Amino acid sequence: MHAMNDAASRAVTGGWPERYKLVALCVCAVFVCYIDRVNISVAVLAMQEQYKWSETTKGLVMSGFFIGYMALMPTSGWLANQFGGKRVLGYAVLWWSLWTILTPVAAAWSLPALVIARIAMGAGEAATFPAIYNLYGRWVLPTERSRAVALLIGGIPLGTLTALMTTGWIINHYGWPAVFYLFGSVGFLWCLAWFPRSYDRPDAHPRISAAELALIRESAPVTTERTPVPWGRLLRAPAVWALIINHFCSNWVFYMLLAWLPSYFRSHLGLSIAKSGLYAAGPWLAMFAVGMFSGWFGDKLVKRGMRVTTVRKIMQVTGLIGAALFMLAARDVSTVNTAFALMCGALGMLAFTWAGFLPNHLEIAPRYADVVMGLTNTAGTIPGIVGVALTGWLVDQTHSYTAAFALAAGVNIFGAVVWLLFGTAEKVVD
Predict the structure, then answer these.
(1) Are the C-beta atoms of 371 and 229 separated by less than 8 Å?
(2) Were both Cys, which of 23, 85, 240, 324 would link to 135 (CB 3.0–4.6 Å)?
(3) pTM above the 0.85 mark?
């Protein structure tokens, strides 16, 4: 039935259904989000050499972003719920792109100014996922959620891969400030394609076909009326807390490697800045490939009749335990190729969680998926602050990554146990 309606939609519009175009633009927004977020993990190597920072100071600079990101996360979820994801996402991209461009100016001024600039940039990027989940709740069909979310999250490793592969080359040829000027400008180009579109209400979109609109109304009926958020019911639901804890646990390995992988290859394995960026890019390509498979596989299991809760538990636990095993195996590794293979395995396995906890926001509280994402991503940002900074401290104290990898594995195992006990895909709030 969905395929027939999509065929009718293409016949009327002469192209993709509008929900596919929405997903594509949202994926591009996440791509821009991550090239702007990740470039500093390579650029900071050159900045550290110029400004003579310790590993602890470098960790502080990189974690500053997550302070703003976490502080604005609950607010951004509420804003998206009350005012619509389309406007919130557009203004957020403008804001963080501006602060990306201002990063070299702030660094030249002082270390506190740089940290403030990173906090301001993080505050803008906080709106990304709550705003997109608000739009997904209106546009994405239940049988397409795993793939739509996997494609969305696929923008993360693609943006990360692009930033890691190009930042070192840009630094070698034009200096590290050019990285921020170039990547920041990409966000302004994205806005030119975003603002002319009408995505807050499917029934008001000028290019949607009657067939697609009927399908959306039947399968993804989320009201656009402003209503009070049922905070008490949400915060009393064990499924919400399982989601909060698993967002935290799933992001520990993710953010630790996002920030420290180039430094790991540079300081621990002795590669150059350019080669560190290239070697750090490979694991993100593995994550993208496995993530695309996990989204397809998750939807396939649902279509074959498996309970959605069972699918979410299989995918989430596989991702967390698999990544933990690779992190444990990576302790005390001293050869580049072995380290590279294990990092590919860790991030590749973690990508199974894309069909685990990430679509779950749309299932347990579809009308308030944006708010729930704001809550869970607040917890999911703590590893970007605590985990990134703690990794720097552990490396300074132990002169290796062994303790940091073991801690990350333990966090993953804890998340898997919580998800098995309390995770569900049943609706907890109407």
Answers:
(1) yes
(2) 85
(3) no
